[in-house]
Amino acid sequence: MRKISNLKIFFSSLLLSFLIFSSSEGQSEEVIAKKKNISFQVGEKLTYSIGYEFVPAGKSVLSVDSITELNGRSVYRITSRTKSHRFFDPFFKVRDEITTYIDTETLQSIKFRKKLREGSYSYDYSVDFNPDSMTAVSTSPKGTRIVKIPEFTLDVLSTMYYMRTLDLKVGKTLTVTVLDNDKLYPMDIKILRRERISTRAGTFDCLVIVPELQSGGLFKNEGRITAWVTDDHRKIPVLMKSKAIIGAIIVELQEVEGLVD
Fold it and tell me: CA 181 to CA 126: how far, in whole Å?
């Protein structure tokens, strides 16, 4: 059952997979707001299958739910819902929900919520970002904590959507800062090459990218993630593969709805 839990935690925000330990190489470019969003819109819905060592383990649905107002800012509300396959439910039922609120203009994180329900385990964590004071206030079972953050800081879910708005070029390395569980992670996004791949959702021309942390992370010394994103203005994550101590994990795009033109 522990392996199932590890798999779920790995994908609960889809891009928790960014939290890997590895050294950076090549020239990097720090990425800071502002980026015009021509990559996603309200109504977009991406459905992924999660395979664990060739066994269907669950699915995750990412949706851009709405535009609302939060702390005087216009924000996107984006949700990731992950659930275990019904075969596993009697043994280890997973129902996780992660929500991020990101500024529609800068795409910076404003609010983050994580609600994990995994078997008998339950965990709730939230962060309120204040870009003006460069602080973040987190709330968890351990209490409330204030974390000082850099000028432009993301959470693990907003990172994926922000990345989709960037100008990704082969051979380039981009750097962002991610806050998760009260820790700051400088993260490099390395663009390796172009490839064409096929999934149940279709055939796509893709960029192959490797997200890496500059210092310790969730899967320290246990492998790395390789991701394929569409080589167009949408930059949709199509496929992710990981080889780690917990086993081989494949996350594959199954269905798409409401894509921006």
Answer: 9
Tokens 């969730």 appear where? 218
- Of 113, 80, 112, which is closest to residue 95 (Cα–Cα)? 80
Work out the mean pLDDT of the chain and round it to a whole number: 84
In our burial notation (b when 16+ CB lie closer than 10 A, e otherwise), range 226-243 reads: bbbbbbeebbbbbbbbbe
Domain-by-domain residue ranges, the chain? 2-256
Q: What is residue 170's three-state secondary structure?
A: coil
How far is 171 from 185, CA to CA, in rounded Å? 22
Instruction: Quote the pTM value.
Output: 0.85
Task: Write out pLDDT tens, residues 226-261.
Answer: 999 999 999 999 999 887 665 678 899 999 999 999
By percentage, how much of the chain surpasses pLDDT 70? 81
Distance between CA atoms of residues 115 and 78, nearest Å: 14
User: What digits encode the pLDDT tens for the residues 107-166?
Assistant: 999 999 999 998 899 999 999 999 999 999 999 999 999 999 998 999 999 999 999 999
| Rg, Å, the chain Cα set | 17
Of 242, 2, 239, give the one whose Cα is nearest residue 119. 2
Q: How many CA atoms lie within 13 A of 111 on its CB side?
A: 15
Q: Which of 118, 17, 98 is nearest to 58 (CA)?
A: 118
Task: Give whole-number Cα distances, 121 to 124, 125, 149, in Å.
Answer: 10, 13, 29
